Structure formats: C-alpha cells, structure tokens
C-alpha cells in the first residue's frame, strides 16, 4: 500500500534534491554553443539507441511505449521523492511562480488539503483491542513526544552552514510520529497494526500541544528567540486538526467511495505536501544556491544518525526492559512501537515551520533537512523491515 509519507526507493540518494537542483541551474547557465553541443550529442546517442532497437526488430512505437511504461512504473513507485525533487528544481529555476503562489495564500490551503486527505484515509476500526497493549502504547507516546525531542539539544551543538540546517533538524526531532508510513511498515512487518495506528493518532493529537512546549524549551533558548506557544497551538489546530476531523467525518459517510480511490488520494496528498516546500524554496532561492554540497551531505548524515539513535533507544526499551511475556507477542508489539516511535512526520513539520514564519530563519532552508531526513528514515526502515522478515523466515525454516 502506498501512502504520502512512504512512497520511496532505496536507490535514491539522500542528497538527490539538492544535487539535481544545482546541476539543473548549472546546465541552464551554459552559453548557446555549449547547449547546442550537448543537444547534438544527445540526439546522436538517441539515434544510436534507436538504430540498435530497430536492428533487434523493435519498432519506434514499441520502443517508446516501453520507455514510457518503465518511466510510469518508476514514477508510481517513487512518487513522493520524485515530486520533492521536482519541487526543489522548479522552485530554484522559476522562483517567481512560487512567490506568486505564496502571495495568493496557497501554502495554507495546501497544508489544509494534506490533513483533509489524511482524515479521509484514516481507518480507526482496528484500534479497539489495543487496550491489552496499553503499556507499550504509553511508552511509545512518551518516547515520541517527550524523550526523542531531547536530541534537539545535541543537534544544535553542531555547526553546519547555514545555521537553518541544524535548526530545521532540531525542529524535526520535536515532531510526533509519521501519519501513515509507520503504520504501513508495521503492517508490512506483520506486527501490531492497531497499536501503531493508536500511537499515530494519540501522538499527533497530543503533539498539537507538546510541539510548542518542546520547541520553547529545547530549541528557542539556544537561538535566543521566543516562541508564542499559544498562537502556535491555535495555528496547528486550524491547519491540521480541523481538516483532519472534517476528513474523518466525510469518511464516515462515504468510506467505500474513498477506499476505492486511495491511490489517487495518496497522489493528491503528495502534490499538496510538496507545494509548501516549493513555495518556501522559491522564496529562499538565493540563500539555497549559496549552500555548499558538503553541508547538505553533512546535515543528511546527521539526520540519519538521529534516526538511528531513536531506533536504538526504542529497541533497547522494548526488548530489554519489558516483562517476560511470550516472545512472539513481545515481537508483535515491539516492532510496532520501534517503527512508529522512531519516525518523525514531515507534514506537521512543514506546518510548524510555516506557522513560525521567519522567526528561526529562512523557511526554505529549515524545510530542506526535514525533507532529507524524512526520505532517509523511510528508506532505512524499509530495509530494516525486510531484514526482520528474512530473519523470521530463516528461523522458521531452521525450526522445521
């Protein structure tokens, strides 16, 4: 099942957005002679490929059809990363369009759309039996909202230019769990999906109140700024909770119609999601172009290390510090908590950065480490789930 936050592919590098953006800008700065030369080489290569395919008996239409089919499959499997990369490139190449869209207030409507679709897609019928796993659920909520954000203090000690990179990553650590990818990966692993869904709902609701608190305590003092917690809570309720509730109410009346169109809704949600960073990057274009590639790699690496710390902490508690329950049941609950409590949500981070305005730096630069960290955590956890499944299969085969 594909969703807004988990549509990715391991072959995509963590810095693909920044690398492609810089490359495109450098390409458009070539003079006409170099441009014509490159186009001529491209046409020559195309001709050689075409001749080779014709020699093998493949017609031009068949060859083009195969190319488009492969491209469509790749885009379908990597829709979120592809859209994020496109948003960065378009924002840098055509900043006036993004600035114009921001002037019409499209940012707020795009965020509203993301959470409206989240409400439409939200299935709560499975969470009734989670009362029997109340202890793991309680730990997951506390870990996601109060313990993992403490890493922000360590992150802010790093010096990476521009300073918005570490600030954005620190803000990202204060977010609740992902809206959908944690549940999807839990389901893929065969773990307690109801527990993962309950943790997602509770942490994202309570996060409306804990996010301003954590930012005020852990991030703002280091930067020498103050965060109006009351107004931030109000903004988050307006931009995330209200549309989520509206979507859930609509779902209650038309769940069959909505479930039949989950894929289309997921793609629409992704489009809404990338509109906000597109506008923010358009606004901070000049600053972004001054960033060195090694700094982008550095903040991407730091974001990955942050996620590993979350995984290690949650794994230690769930496997080493819990009771002597049945091993299968412990694994069933532990995998759900480890996956969901270790991830941080991108849509809420974008909404928070939008509410903060320029108080902590250029929004476009604050968003970039969140984008990179979000993709990297989903990619790594996808590998982790596959490893868990393979280990279980190997143990089963050895037992038999």
From TrEMBL:
Keyword check for Transmembrane helix: yes
PANTHER family: SODIUM_METABOLITE COTRANSPORTER BASS4, CHLOROPLASTIC-RELATED, SOLUTE CARRIER FAMILY 10 MEMBER 7
Cellular component terms (Gene Ontology): chloroplast envelope
Keywords (A to Z) from UniProt: Membrane, Transmembrane, Transmembrane helix
Lipid biosynthesis is among the record's keywords: no
Record's signal peptide: none
Transmembrane segment boundaries: 131-156, 194-220, 265-281, 293-313, 334-353, 365-385
Organism of this sequence: Ceratopteris richardii (Triangle waterfern)
Name listed for the protein in its UniProt record: Sodium/metabolite cotransporter BASS4, chloroplastic
Highest taxon, organism lineage: Eukaryota
Cross-referenced Pfam families: SBF_like
Gene3D superfamilies recorded: 1.20.1530.20
């Amino acid at each position: 099942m594909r969703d807004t936050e988990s549509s990715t592919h391991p072959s995509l590098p963590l810095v693909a957005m920044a690398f492609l953006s810089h490359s495109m800008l450098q390409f458009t700065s070539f003079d006409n002679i170099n441009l014509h030369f490159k186009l001529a080489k491209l046409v020559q290569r195309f001709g050689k490929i075409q001749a080779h395919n014709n020699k093998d008996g493949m017609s031009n239409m068949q060859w083009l059809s195969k190319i488009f089919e492969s491209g469509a499959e790749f885009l379908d499997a990597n829709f979120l990363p592809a859209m994020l990369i496109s948003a960065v490139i378009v924002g840098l190449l055509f900043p006036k369009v993004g600035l114009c869209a921001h002037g019409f207030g499209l940012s707020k409507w795009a965020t509203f759309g993301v959470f409206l679709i989240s409400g439409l897609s939200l299935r709560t019928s499975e969470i009734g039996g989670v009362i029997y796993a109340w202890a793991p659920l309680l730990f997951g909520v506390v870990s996601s909202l109060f313990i993992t954000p403490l890493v922000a203090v360590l992150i802010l000690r790093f010096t990476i230019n521009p300073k918005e990179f570490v600030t954005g990553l620190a803000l990202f650590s204060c977010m609740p769990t992902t809206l959908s990818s944690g549940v999807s990966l839990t389901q893929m692993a065969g773990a307690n999906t109801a527990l993962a869904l309950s943790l997602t709902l509770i942490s994202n609701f309570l996060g409306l109140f804990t996010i301003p608190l954590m930012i005020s305590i852990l991030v703002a003092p280091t930067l020498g700024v103050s965060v109006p917690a009351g107004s931030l809570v109000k903004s988050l309720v307006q931009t995330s909770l209200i549309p989520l509730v509206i979507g859930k109410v609509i779902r209650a009346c038309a769940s069959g119609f909505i479930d039949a169109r989950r894929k289309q809704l997921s793609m629409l949600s992704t489009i809404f999601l990338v509109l906000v960073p597109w506008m923010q990057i358009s606004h901070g274009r000049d600053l972004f172009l001054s960033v060195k590639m090694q700094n982008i790699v550095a903040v991407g690496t730091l974001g990955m290390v942050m996620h590993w710390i979350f995984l290690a902490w949650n794994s230690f508690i769930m496997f080493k510090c819990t009771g002597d329950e049945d091993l299968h049941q412990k694994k069933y609950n532990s995998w759900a908590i480890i996956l969901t409590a270790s991830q941080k949500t991108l849509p809420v981070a974008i909404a928070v950065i939008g509410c903060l305005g320029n108080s902590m730096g250029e929004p476009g630069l604050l968003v970039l480490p969140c984008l990179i960290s979000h993709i990297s955590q989903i990619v790594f956890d996808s590998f982790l789930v596959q490893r868990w499944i393979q280990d279980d299969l190997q143990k089963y085969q050895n037992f038999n």
